[in-house]
Write a structure and sequence with these properties.
By secondary structure, the protein is α/β, with parallel strands linked by helices. It contains seven helices and six strands. Helix 1 crosses helix 7. The N and C termini lie close together (about 10 Å). It comes from Pseudoalteromonas arctica.
Length: about 180
């Protein structure tokens, strides 16, 4: 049974976009459809999220860079427009996961992942983390948490993901697709 997963992100310097592409590729390797969506069209290939995308999807991967431990304002502005979906319960029981990037190892990734989770939980979505059976979670010297996939870009804002970060992103896409199919 095919599933459609929205991979929704905002990226300032390219690292969150790189993570979104890894997650989307993993989703498609599982035979599902990945719809890459952004909050603001910055490039010609960007497709801006619509509420219908959320209503019609079977799962959601949501990521932004960290902004002092919080989601990017572009994402917050969008979620503030979704009260009508909340009132109708249109996202209840859809699986979701979160991902983020920061400039430093202690730059707020975990706080941002928790912040990204809040609108999803309010909408009744089922939040998936990264279980410890993903070996890269214990081995990583860069990004990756049990709350979601992360990337540490460094002071140069490198969009180059480490091997561990790539594997964690791929595991997130695979797990999200697996759960979305079970629930469909």
């Amino acid at each position: 049974m095919s599933a459609t997963i929205v991979v929704l992100y905002h990226s300032s310097h390219g690292s969150v976009e790189a993570m979104a592409h890894e997650i989307a590729e993993s989703i498609e390797q599982q035979g599902a459809s990945a719809l890459l969506r952004t909050f603001v069209a910055k490039n010609a290939h960007d497709i801006v999220i619509t509420k219908d995308d959320l209503i019609n999807c079977d799962g959601l991967a949501f990521g932004t860079p960290t902004r002092f431990g919080m989601m990017a304002s572009q994402a917050k502005s969008f979620w503030e427009t979704t009260s009508d979906l909340w009132l109708k319960g249109q996202l209840i029981d859809k699986p979701a996961c979160v991902f983020s990037s920061s400039s430093s190892m202690h730059g707020g990734n975990e706080a941002t992942l928790l912040n990204l989770s809040l609108p999803l939980l309010h909408h009744g979505m089922m939040l998936l983390g990264v279980p410890y059976d993903v070996p890269e979670l214990l081995a990583t010297q860069t990004g990756g948490t049990p709350y979601g996939a992360t990337h540490v870009a460094g002071s140069a804002n490198s969009a180059q993901l480490s091997k561990d970060e790539i594997k964690i992103c791929q595991s997130v896409g695979k797990r999200l697709t697996h759960i979305a199919r079970k629930l469909k």
